[in-house]
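Continuing from the previous page...

OK, I double-checked the sequence for DUF3440 domain-containing protein against my notes and this is the correct one:
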Amino acid sequence: MHTQFTDQSVLEAANARLDRVFQDFDNVIVAFSGGKDSGVLLNLALAAGDRHGRQIGVFHFDYEAQYQATTDYVDATYASLRGRIDPLRCCVPVLCPTATSMHETHWRPWDPDKREIWVRPLPEDHLGPDAFDFLTDTMSDYAFQERIALWHHKRRNASRTAVLVGIRAEESLDRWRTIAGTQRRYRHAGLPWTTRLFDDVYTAYPIYDWRVEDIWTANACFGWGYNRLYDLFHLAGVPLHAMRVSSPFHNYAKSTLSLYRAVDPQTWGKLVSRVNGVNFTAIYGDTVAMGWKDITKPAHFTWRDYALFLLDTLPEDTAAGFREKLATSIRFWREKGGVLSAETQADLRRAGIPFEVGEKSNYKTDKLPVRMEYADDVDSNDFKLIPTWKRLCICILKNDHVGKYMGFSLTKREMERREAAIAKYRDL
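Thanks. Re-ran it with the corrected sequence; updated C-alpha coordinates here:
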Protein backbone atom coordinates (compact mmCIF):
# COMPACT_ATOMS: atom_id res chain seq x y z
CA MET A 1 0.00 0.00 0.00
CA HIS A 2 1.37 3.40 -0.96
CA THR A 3 0.40 6.85 0.28
CA GLN A 4 -2.00 8.62 -2.06
CA PHE A 5 -3.13 12.18 -1.43
CA THR A 6 -6.61 13.21 -2.59
CA ASP A 7 -8.90 16.21 -2.29
CA GLN A 8 -11.00 14.31 0.26
CA SER A 9 -10.64 14.91 3.98
CA VAL A 10 -10.12 11.84 6.16
CA LEU A 11 -13.69 12.35 7.42
CA GLU A 12 -15.10 12.29 3.89
CA ALA A 13 -13.03 9.24 3.03
CA ALA A 14 -14.17 7.39 6.18
CA ASN A 15 -17.83 8.17 5.46
CA ALA A 16 -17.43 6.94 1.88
CA ARG A 17 -15.92 3.69 3.14
CA LEU A 18 -18.73 3.24 5.66
CA ASP A 19 -21.34 3.85 2.96
CA ARG A 20 -19.67 1.13 0.89
CA VAL A 21 -19.77 -1.23 3.89
CA PHE A 22 -23.49 -0.69 4.44
CA GLN A 23 -24.15 -1.21 0.72
CA ASP A 24 -22.18 -4.47 0.51
CA PHE A 25 -22.80 -6.02 3.96
CA ASP A 26 -26.18 -6.79 5.50
CA ASN A 27 -24.66 -7.27 8.98
CA VAL A 28 -22.33 -4.68 10.53
CA ILE A 29 -20.58 -4.86 13.91
CA VAL A 30 -18.36 -2.23 15.53
CA ALA A 31 -15.50 -3.46 17.72
CA PHE A 32 -15.67 -1.01 20.62
CA SER A 33 -12.77 -1.14 23.08
CA GLY A 34 -13.64 2.04 24.97
CA GLY A 35 -10.60 3.82 23.51
CA LYS A 36 -10.45 7.03 21.52
CA ASP A 37 -10.27 5.43 18.07
CA SER A 38 -13.07 2.92 18.52
CA GLY A 39 -15.20 5.64 20.10
CA VAL A 40 -14.90 7.89 17.04
CA LEU A 41 -15.50 4.93 14.72
CA LEU A 42 -18.64 4.00 16.67
CA ASN A 43 -20.05 7.51 16.24
CA LEU A 44 -19.28 7.48 12.51
CA ALA A 45 -20.86 4.03 12.12
CA LEU A 46 -24.00 5.06 14.01
CA ALA A 47 -24.42 8.02 11.66
CA ALA A 48 -23.86 5.76 8.65
CA GLY A 49 -26.39 3.28 10.00
CA ASP A 50 -28.93 6.08 10.30
CA ARG A 51 -28.25 7.14 6.69
CA HIS A 52 -28.92 3.60 5.51
CA GLY A 53 -31.73 2.82 7.96
CA ARG A 54 -29.77 0.01 9.58
CA GLN A 55 -29.04 -1.21 13.10
CA ILE A 56 -25.48 -2.17 14.04
CA GLY A 57 -24.01 -4.53 16.61
CA VAL A 58 -21.59 -3.06 19.17
CA PHE A 59 -19.06 -5.57 20.46
CA HIS A 60 -17.05 -4.88 23.61
CA PHE A 61 -14.73 -7.45 25.17
CA ASP A 62 -14.78 -6.58 28.87
CA TYR A 63 -11.41 -7.36 30.46
CA GLU A 64 -12.71 -6.88 34.05
CA ALA A 65 -9.36 -5.30 35.10
CA GLN A 66 -9.35 -1.88 33.49
CA TYR A 67 -9.46 1.79 34.38
CA GLN A 68 -12.68 2.84 36.10
CA ALA A 69 -12.98 5.70 33.60
CA THR A 70 -13.09 3.15 30.78
CA THR A 71 -15.82 1.19 32.54
CA ASP A 72 -17.80 4.39 33.12
CA TYR A 73 -17.50 5.35 29.45
CA VAL A 74 -18.54 1.90 28.22
CA ASP A 75 -21.47 1.81 30.69
CA ALA A 76 -22.64 5.25 29.56
CA THR A 77 -22.31 4.37 25.88
CA TYR A 78 -24.38 1.21 26.11
CA ALA A 79 -26.98 2.97 28.26
CA SER A 80 -27.36 5.83 25.77
CA LEU A 81 -27.74 3.42 22.84
CA ARG A 82 -30.19 1.00 24.48
CA GLY A 83 -32.80 -0.05 21.92
CA ARG A 84 -30.81 1.46 19.06
CA ILE A 85 -28.09 -1.20 18.71
CA ASP A 86 -27.54 -4.91 19.13
CA PRO A 87 -25.49 -4.94 22.38
CA LEU A 88 -22.61 -7.42 22.49
CA ARG A 89 -20.81 -6.74 25.76
CA CYS A 90 -18.93 -9.96 26.51
CA CYS A 91 -17.64 -11.09 29.91
CA VAL A 92 -15.99 -14.47 29.42
CA PRO A 93 -13.10 -16.26 31.21
CA VAL A 94 -10.80 -16.78 28.23
CA LEU A 95 -7.00 -16.88 28.35
CA CYS A 96 -5.35 -13.45 28.19
CA PRO A 97 -1.55 -13.03 28.03
CA THR A 98 0.24 -11.45 30.97
CA ALA A 99 3.80 -10.15 31.02
CA THR A 100 3.84 -9.40 34.72
CA SER A 101 4.87 -12.83 35.96
CA MET A 102 7.37 -15.59 35.25
CA HIS A 103 4.99 -18.04 36.92
CA GLU A 104 1.90 -17.28 34.86
CA THR A 105 1.74 -16.79 31.11
CA HIS A 106 -1.99 -16.04 31.11
CA TRP A 107 -4.80 -14.85 33.33
CA ARG A 108 -8.59 -15.15 32.99
CA PRO A 109 -10.89 -12.16 33.35
CA TRP A 110 -14.13 -13.10 35.12
CA ASP A 111 -12.59 -16.38 36.26
CA PRO A 112 -15.41 -18.03 38.28
CA ASP A 113 -12.84 -19.63 40.59
CA LYS A 114 -11.55 -16.17 41.58
CA ARG A 115 -14.84 -14.36 41.97
CA GLU A 116 -13.88 -13.12 45.45
CA ILE A 117 -10.98 -11.05 44.01
CA TRP A 118 -12.65 -9.74 40.85
CA VAL A 119 -11.74 -6.12 40.26
CA ARG A 120 -15.43 -5.21 39.94
CA PRO A 121 -18.87 -6.86 39.65
CA LEU A 122 -20.28 -8.10 36.38
CA PRO A 123 -21.97 -5.32 34.40
CA GLU A 124 -25.66 -5.38 33.60
CA ASP A 125 -26.87 -6.77 30.26
CA HIS A 126 -23.65 -8.63 29.53
CA LEU A 127 -23.17 -11.84 27.58
CA GLY A 128 -21.52 -14.54 29.68
CA PRO A 129 -19.93 -17.88 28.76
CA ASP A 130 -23.32 -19.63 28.48
CA ALA A 131 -24.14 -17.48 25.45
CA PHE A 132 -21.37 -18.94 23.29
CA ASP A 133 -21.42 -22.58 22.21
CA PHE A 134 -17.95 -22.26 20.68
CA LEU A 135 -16.19 -21.21 23.90
CA THR A 136 -13.49 -23.56 25.25
CA ASP A 137 -11.22 -23.53 28.29
CA THR A 138 -8.15 -23.05 26.08
CA MET A 139 -9.51 -20.23 23.93
CA SER A 140 -7.53 -16.96 23.93
CA ASP A 141 -9.05 -13.50 23.96
CA TYR A 142 -7.91 -12.87 20.38
CA ALA A 143 -9.39 -16.16 19.16
CA PHE A 144 -12.65 -15.32 20.91
CA GLN A 145 -12.80 -11.89 19.31
CA GLU A 146 -12.37 -13.44 15.87
CA ARG A 147 -14.81 -16.28 16.50
CA ILE A 148 -17.59 -14.02 17.78
CA ALA A 149 -17.77 -12.41 14.34
CA LEU A 150 -18.73 -15.77 12.81
CA TRP A 151 -21.07 -16.47 15.74
CA HIS A 152 -22.93 -13.20 15.16
CA HIS A 153 -22.94 -13.79 11.39
CA LYS A 154 -24.78 -17.09 11.93
CA ARG A 155 -26.95 -15.67 14.69
CA ARG A 156 -28.26 -12.96 12.36
CA ASN A 157 -28.49 -15.38 9.42
CA ALA A 158 -26.50 -12.81 7.48
CA SER A 159 -25.33 -13.06 3.90
CA ARG A 160 -22.22 -11.01 4.56
CA THR A 161 -20.82 -9.56 7.82
CA ALA A 162 -18.38 -6.69 8.35
CA VAL A 163 -16.60 -6.05 11.64
CA LEU A 164 -15.48 -2.42 11.84
CA VAL A 165 -12.18 -2.01 13.70
CA GLY A 166 -10.76 1.39 14.67
CA ILE A 167 -7.06 0.77 14.08
CA ARG A 168 -4.94 3.47 12.47
CA ALA A 169 -1.79 2.79 10.46
CA GLU A 170 -0.04 5.67 12.24
CA GLU A 171 -0.18 3.86 15.59
CA SER A 172 2.44 1.18 14.92
CA LEU A 173 4.21 -0.84 12.26
CA ASP A 174 2.12 -3.88 13.20
CA ARG A 175 -1.09 -1.98 12.54
CA TRP A 176 0.21 -0.60 9.25
CA ARG A 177 1.20 -4.15 8.28
CA THR A 178 -2.28 -5.44 9.17
CA ILE A 179 -3.70 -3.22 6.46
CA ALA A 180 -0.89 -2.95 3.92
CA GLY A 181 0.12 -6.60 4.17
CA THR A 182 -3.27 -8.09 3.26
CA GLN A 183 -3.09 -9.90 -0.07
CA ARG A 184 -5.70 -8.93 -2.64
CA ARG A 185 -7.43 -12.32 -2.60
CA TYR A 186 -8.19 -11.87 1.11
CA ARG A 187 -9.84 -8.48 0.60
CA HIS A 188 -13.47 -7.73 -0.07
CA ALA A 189 -13.83 -6.58 -3.68
CA GLY A 190 -10.12 -5.71 -3.68
CA LEU A 191 -10.62 -2.93 -1.11
CA PRO A 192 -7.25 -2.43 0.68
CA TRP A 193 -8.88 -1.53 4.00
CA THR A 194 -10.63 -4.91 4.36
CA THR A 195 -9.46 -8.39 5.39
CA ARG A 196 -11.31 -11.72 5.21
CA LEU A 197 -11.75 -13.50 8.54
CA PHE A 198 -14.02 -16.33 7.38
CA ASP A 199 -16.13 -16.95 4.31
CA ASP A 200 -18.44 -13.92 3.98
CA VAL A 201 -17.04 -12.39 7.20
CA TYR A 202 -14.60 -9.49 6.89
CA THR A 203 -12.90 -6.91 9.05
CA ALA A 204 -12.87 -3.33 7.79
CA TYR A 205 -10.71 -0.38 8.88
CA PRO A 206 -12.56 2.80 7.82
CA ILE A 207 -10.30 5.23 9.74
CA TYR A 208 -6.95 3.59 8.99
CA ASP A 209 -5.52 6.81 7.51
CA TRP A 210 -6.53 9.11 10.39
CA ARG A 211 -3.95 10.72 12.62
CA VAL A 212 -4.41 11.08 16.37
CA GLU A 213 -5.02 14.80 15.87
CA ASP A 214 -7.92 13.94 13.56
CA ILE A 215 -9.49 11.82 16.30
CA TRP A 216 -9.54 14.66 18.79
CA THR A 217 -10.59 17.21 16.17
CA ALA A 218 -13.63 15.07 15.35
CA ASN A 219 -14.57 14.74 19.04
CA ALA A 220 -14.32 18.51 19.46
CA CYS A 221 -16.18 19.43 16.25
CA PHE A 222 -19.10 17.06 16.79
CA GLY A 223 -19.25 17.18 20.58
CA TRP A 224 -18.97 13.40 20.88
CA GLY A 225 -18.48 11.83 24.28
CA TYR A 226 -15.18 10.11 24.94
CA ASN A 227 -13.32 8.20 27.61
CA ARG A 228 -12.35 10.77 30.27
CA LEU A 229 -9.31 8.65 31.06
CA TYR A 230 -7.53 10.66 28.36
CA ASP A 231 -8.04 13.82 30.42
CA LEU A 232 -6.34 12.09 33.34
CA PHE A 233 -3.52 10.95 31.06
CA HIS A 234 -3.04 14.54 29.94
CA LEU A 235 -2.90 15.76 33.52
CA ALA A 236 -0.38 13.01 34.31
CA GLY A 237 1.87 14.28 31.51
CA VAL A 238 1.39 11.35 29.11
CA PRO A 239 2.22 12.45 25.52
CA LEU A 240 -0.68 12.50 23.06
CA HIS A 241 0.72 9.69 20.91
CA ALA A 242 1.47 7.48 23.95
CA MET A 243 -2.07 7.38 25.38
CA ARG A 244 -3.41 3.80 25.25
CA VAL A 245 -6.48 2.05 26.62
CA SER A 246 -5.87 -1.70 26.79
CA SER A 247 -5.49 -4.69 29.08
CA PRO A 248 -2.91 -3.60 31.70
CA PHE A 249 -1.03 -6.88 31.87
CA HIS A 250 0.17 -7.53 28.33
CA ASN A 251 3.69 -6.85 27.11
CA TYR A 252 3.06 -3.45 25.52
CA ALA A 253 1.29 -2.03 28.58
CA LYS A 254 3.59 -3.10 31.39
CA SER A 255 5.97 -0.12 31.12
CA THR A 256 3.01 2.19 31.89
CA LEU A 257 1.29 -0.05 34.44
CA SER A 258 2.39 2.29 37.23
CA LEU A 259 0.02 4.94 35.83
CA TYR A 260 -2.81 3.07 37.51
CA ARG A 261 -1.44 4.14 40.89
CA ALA A 262 -1.52 7.79 39.84
CA VAL A 263 -4.80 8.10 37.93
CA ASP A 264 -6.93 5.28 39.41
CA PRO A 265 -5.63 4.27 42.86
CA GLN A 266 -8.80 2.39 43.84
CA THR A 267 -8.56 0.08 40.85
CA TRP A 268 -4.81 -0.22 41.40
CA GLY A 269 -5.34 -1.69 44.85
CA LYS A 270 -7.46 -4.46 43.33
CA LEU A 271 -5.03 -5.15 40.48
CA VAL A 272 -2.25 -5.94 42.94
CA SER A 273 -4.10 -8.96 44.26
CA ARG A 274 -5.74 -9.94 40.95
CA VAL A 275 -2.72 -11.00 38.84
CA ASN A 276 0.67 -12.25 39.99
CA GLY A 277 3.58 -9.81 39.67
CA VAL A 278 1.58 -6.63 39.09
CA ASN A 279 3.26 -4.54 41.78
CA PHE A 280 6.77 -5.59 40.78
CA THR A 281 6.07 -4.82 37.12
CA ALA A 282 4.64 -1.40 37.97
CA ILE A 283 7.80 -0.52 39.89
CA TYR A 284 10.36 -2.06 37.53
CA GLY A 285 8.45 -2.36 34.23
CA ASP A 286 10.52 0.33 32.51
CA THR A 287 13.87 -0.54 34.04
CA VAL A 288 16.76 -2.96 33.71
CA ALA A 289 14.94 -5.43 35.95
CA MET A 290 12.33 -6.05 33.27
CA GLY A 291 14.80 -6.13 30.41
CA TRP A 292 13.88 -2.81 28.82
CA LYS A 293 17.24 -1.09 29.30
CA ASP A 294 20.90 -2.13 29.03
CA ILE A 295 20.85 -5.22 31.19
CA THR A 296 23.98 -6.68 32.75
CA LYS A 297 24.92 -10.23 33.67
CA PRO A 298 27.11 -11.83 36.38
CA ALA A 299 30.76 -11.33 35.42
CA HIS A 300 31.56 -15.06 35.45
CA PHE A 301 28.72 -15.84 32.98
CA THR A 302 28.64 -15.61 29.23
CA TRP A 303 25.25 -14.51 27.89
CA ARG A 304 24.63 -18.14 26.93
CA ASP A 305 25.42 -19.24 30.50
CA TYR A 306 23.12 -16.55 31.85
CA ALA A 307 20.27 -17.54 29.50
CA LEU A 308 20.53 -21.19 30.53
CA PHE A 309 20.68 -20.14 34.19
CA LEU A 310 17.50 -18.05 33.80
CA LEU A 311 15.73 -20.94 32.08
CA ASP A 312 16.64 -23.23 34.97
CA THR A 313 15.07 -20.81 37.45
CA LEU A 314 11.70 -20.66 35.66
CA PRO A 315 8.69 -22.85 36.35
CA GLU A 316 8.82 -25.99 34.22
CA ASP A 317 5.98 -25.08 31.86
CA THR A 318 7.24 -21.54 31.33
CA ALA A 319 10.80 -22.71 30.65
CA ALA A 320 9.51 -25.32 28.21
CA GLY A 321 7.75 -22.60 26.23
CA PHE A 322 10.92 -20.51 25.96
CA ARG A 323 13.02 -23.56 25.03
CA GLU A 324 10.59 -24.50 22.28
CA LYS A 325 10.73 -20.98 20.84
CA LEU A 326 14.53 -21.02 21.10
CA ALA A 327 14.82 -24.35 19.28
CA THR A 328 12.64 -23.02 16.47
CA SER A 329 14.77 -19.90 16.19
CA ILE A 330 18.11 -21.77 16.23
CA ARG A 331 16.89 -24.09 13.51
CA PHE A 332 15.63 -21.16 11.43
CA TRP A 333 18.91 -19.22 11.56
CA ARG A 334 20.99 -22.35 10.97
CA GLU A 335 19.02 -23.76 8.03
CA LYS A 336 17.12 -20.91 6.38
CA GLY A 337 18.54 -17.66 7.68
CA GLY A 338 17.07 -14.25 8.31
CA VAL A 339 17.47 -11.20 6.11
CA LEU A 340 19.98 -8.65 7.42
CA SER A 341 21.18 -5.40 5.89
CA ALA A 342 24.74 -4.88 4.61
CA GLU A 343 25.38 -2.61 7.62
CA THR A 344 24.31 -5.34 10.04
CA GLN A 345 26.47 -7.89 8.23
CA ALA A 346 29.40 -5.50 8.66
CA ASP A 347 28.67 -5.42 12.40
CA LEU A 348 28.89 -9.23 12.46
CA ARG A 349 32.25 -9.17 10.65
CA ARG A 350 33.67 -6.61 13.09
CA ALA A 351 32.59 -8.85 15.96
CA GLY A 352 34.33 -11.83 14.34
CA ILE A 353 31.13 -13.83 14.05
CA PRO A 354 31.05 -16.33 11.16
CA PHE A 355 28.03 -16.37 8.87
CA GLU A 356 26.96 -17.34 5.36
CA VAL A 357 25.05 -15.12 2.94
CA GLY A 358 22.52 -16.71 0.61
CA GLU A 359 21.78 -15.66 -2.94
CA LYS A 360 18.11 -14.80 -2.58
CA SER A 361 15.27 -14.65 -0.10
CA ASN A 362 11.60 -15.59 -0.31
CA TYR A 363 10.77 -12.33 1.44
CA LYS A 364 9.93 -9.20 -0.53
CA THR A 365 13.17 -7.38 0.23
CA ASP A 366 16.50 -6.49 -1.35
CA LYS A 367 18.30 -7.84 1.74
CA LEU A 368 19.97 -11.23 1.49
CA PRO A 369 19.42 -14.14 3.90
CA VAL A 370 22.11 -14.70 6.53
CA ARG A 371 22.69 -18.15 8.07
CA MET A 372 24.50 -18.26 11.38
CA GLU A 373 24.68 -19.83 14.82
CA TYR A 374 23.51 -18.01 17.92
CA ALA A 375 26.11 -15.45 19.01
CA ASP A 376 26.73 -14.38 22.59
CA ASP A 377 26.28 -10.64 21.97
CA VAL A 378 26.72 -8.18 19.09
CA ASP A 379 27.10 -4.41 19.19
CA SER A 380 24.73 -3.31 16.44
CA ASN A 381 21.94 -0.83 15.83
CA ASP A 382 19.93 -3.83 14.62
CA PHE A 383 20.56 -5.82 17.80
CA LYS A 384 16.94 -7.02 17.99
CA LEU A 385 17.25 -8.62 14.54
CA ILE A 386 20.35 -10.68 15.33
CA PRO A 387 20.08 -14.09 17.05
CA THR A 388 22.03 -13.70 20.29
CA TRP A 389 21.90 -15.23 23.73
CA LYS A 390 21.68 -11.74 25.20
CA ARG A 391 18.51 -11.16 23.22
CA LEU A 392 17.07 -14.34 24.73
CA CYS A 393 17.96 -13.08 28.22
CA ILE A 394 16.07 -9.85 27.55
CA CYS A 395 13.11 -11.84 26.28
CA ILE A 396 13.03 -13.91 29.48
CA LEU A 397 13.45 -10.90 31.77
CA LYS A 398 10.61 -9.12 29.98
CA ASN A 399 8.34 -12.13 30.54
CA ASP A 400 7.83 -12.06 26.79
CA HIS A 401 6.28 -15.52 26.62
CA VAL A 402 5.32 -15.14 22.96
CA GLY A 403 8.89 -14.19 22.00
CA LYS A 404 8.06 -11.06 20.01
CA TYR A 405 11.22 -9.27 21.15
CA MET A 406 13.31 -12.02 19.58
CA GLY A 407 11.30 -12.07 16.37
CA PHE A 408 10.09 -15.64 16.97
CA SER A 409 7.40 -16.97 14.72
CA LEU A 410 4.75 -19.38 15.94
CA THR A 411 6.01 -22.92 16.39
CA LYS A 412 4.88 -25.58 13.95
CA ARG A 413 2.47 -27.00 16.53
CA GLU A 414 0.95 -23.59 17.21
CA MET A 415 0.50 -22.94 13.50
CA GLU A 416 -1.12 -26.34 13.03
CA ARG A 417 -3.51 -25.68 15.93
CA ARG A 418 -4.42 -22.29 14.48
CA GLU A 419 -5.00 -23.70 10.97
CA ALA A 420 -7.06 -26.55 12.40
CA ALA A 421 -9.28 -24.09 14.28
CA ILE A 422 -9.77 -21.96 11.17
CA ALA A 423 -10.61 -25.02 9.07
CA LYS A 424 -13.02 -26.29 11.72
CA TYR A 425 -15.07 -23.10 11.83
CA ARG A 426 -14.79 -22.00 8.20
CA ASP A 427 -17.70 -24.09 7.00
CA LEU A 428 -19.97 -23.90 10.04
